Amino acid sequence: MASEKPLAAVTCTAPVNIAVIKYWGKRDEELVLPINSSLSVTLHQDQLKTTTTAVISKDFTEDRIWLNGREEDVGQPRLQACLREIRRLARKRRNAWDGDPLPSSLSCKVHVASVNNFPTAAGLASSAAGYACLAYTLARVYGVESDLSEVARQGSGSACRSLYGGFVEWQMGEQTDGKDSIARQVAPESHWPELRVLILVVSAEKKLTGSTAGMRASVETSPLLRFRAESVVPARMAEMTRCIQERDFPGFAQLTMKDSNQFHATCLDTFPPISYLSAVSWRIIHLVHRFNAHHGDTKVAYTFDAGPNAVIFTLDDTVAEFVAAVRHSFPPGSNGDAFLKGLQVRPAPLSAELQAALAMEPTTPGGVKYIIATQVGPGPQILDNPCAHLLGPDGLPKPAA
Ligand code: DP6
Question: Buried-most residue among 32, 119, 125, 320 (CB within 10 A)?
């Protein structure tokens, strides 16, 4: 048990991000360098976030980590890569200081505790928020001020995009050491206040093929993936940036759907093929296209990552009608009143015309388990209140309140 006061305790939160131009494929597995650039929207932490506490103390004899209350193996390679990178950056910074006035935090072991405010297994990009939060919190506790892309990235590629709020690009870079493979904000969270995000949770089951193994197989076997990375993504990055800058929703929405579809096409082009979309995912795709056709305008977009859950983008004036369409096509199971979580959405009627245009018999209840309504949000935050710490002064998890 620790006897001395810890040298430092820091608690931070970090957001989930959802890519609208997808990252799929690494050119360097060790350094986590991608074969193409990607672009994402940072989701609001009021609905989805990871909270992480890091404590360093001279009394700790080993690094330890607790995830959602359970102690995990700290020897896991990606975790080790993050810890190694942070300590390297801290050493570099200390060497730059003459006389070393900083406390010898570098020789200290660290205890880390991390929790998500959403189900980890729901396929909601928990690793991105988790590793971004880890990198951000460790940086504060070890006094690192440099760019953290390379730290977060080595935990999980997409995590480097969760280091910023708003709209974020991850530039693939060209250098073999990865120094130019960094995340950068394209526009802040205040840029497009009307944009809304709905997460349609289809399945909370763990996915069959993880993204790391999936993208390795795609890089090895899919000619379509190579074509995508070399000949499609560069122009799409420029076009997506323009759509965001000009708040061109139809342009943004169409490109988002096309890029999701192309990512899933590369999965099918992988040998043996990978399939992340379920029958319910496909029904959501049809629902969105019919909804848009009915309006004669692109009012809603879908995107899917390595799992069957849909992430929907729309504008605030369309949310209520689209939620009514989802409720109609995917009647809630027994959780009728808990079907919609997050931001308030006023109930709206579904017109007979729209219902006819959807041309869909409702599924058996529970096809869509629940919806989380959210919006674009800020990047990682430091929590100043010591009550927020997940670890006590002894460096062990506080008993859950
Ligand atoms: C489909 O970042 O989870 O969500 O770098 O191997 O940890 P690793 O992969 P990860 O892959 C995310 C893939 C994606 C698309 C995206 O977020 O860009």
Answer: 125
189 within 8 A of 165, measured Cβ to Cβ: yes
Pocket lining: 129 vs ligand 1, CB cutoff 6 Å: no
Quick one: pLDDT at residue 349? Answer: 93
pLDDT given for residue 333 in this prediction = 85
Structural contact between residues 90 and 144, judged by C-beta atoms closer than 8 angstroms: yes
Identify the pLDDT of residue 2: 43
Residues of the chain with pLDDT under 50: 1-2, 101, 401
> Can you give the pLDDT at residue 107?
83
Distance CA 292, CA 169 (A): 27
Q: What global pTM score does this model have?
A: 0.95
> Does ligand 1 lie within 6 Å of residue 276's CB atom?
no
**Model pLDDT, residue 3:** 53
Query: Tens digit of pLDDT for each residue in 184-221?
Result: 999 999 999 999 999 999 976 666 788 999 999 999 99
Of ligand 1's listed atoms, the one at least distance from the Cα of 17 is 17
- Which one-letter amino acid corresponds to residue 319? V
Please measure the distance between the N-terminal and C-terminal CA atoms of the chain and give it in whole angstroms.
22
Query: Rounded to the nearest 10 degrees, what angle do helices 249-269 and 211-221 cross at?
Result: 70
Strand, helix or coil for residue 337: helix
Q: Are 327 and 333 a contacting pair, CB within 8 Å? A: no
CA distances from 254 to 36, 247, 248, 322 (A): 20, 13, 10, 17
Chain length of the chain: 401
Q: What is the 3-state secondary structure (H, E, C) of 365-390?
A: CCCCCEEEEEEECCCCEEECCHHHCC
Instruction: Ligand 1 pocket test: pick from 36, 78, 158, 225 the residue with the most ligand atoms within 8 Å of its Cβ.
Output: 158
What is the spatial distance between Cα 339 and Cα 341, in angstroms, rounded to a whole number? 7
Please say whether the beta carbons of 303 and 263 come within 8 A: no
* Sheet of 195-201, strand order: 300-303, 310-315, 195-201, 370-375, 340-342
Q: Find the 325 Cα to ligand 1 centroid distance in Å.
A: 30
The total of other beta-carbon atoms located within 10 Å of residue 250's CB is: 13
| Distances, alpha carbon 227 to alpha carbons 119, 231, 306, 386, in Å | 35, 5, 20, 51
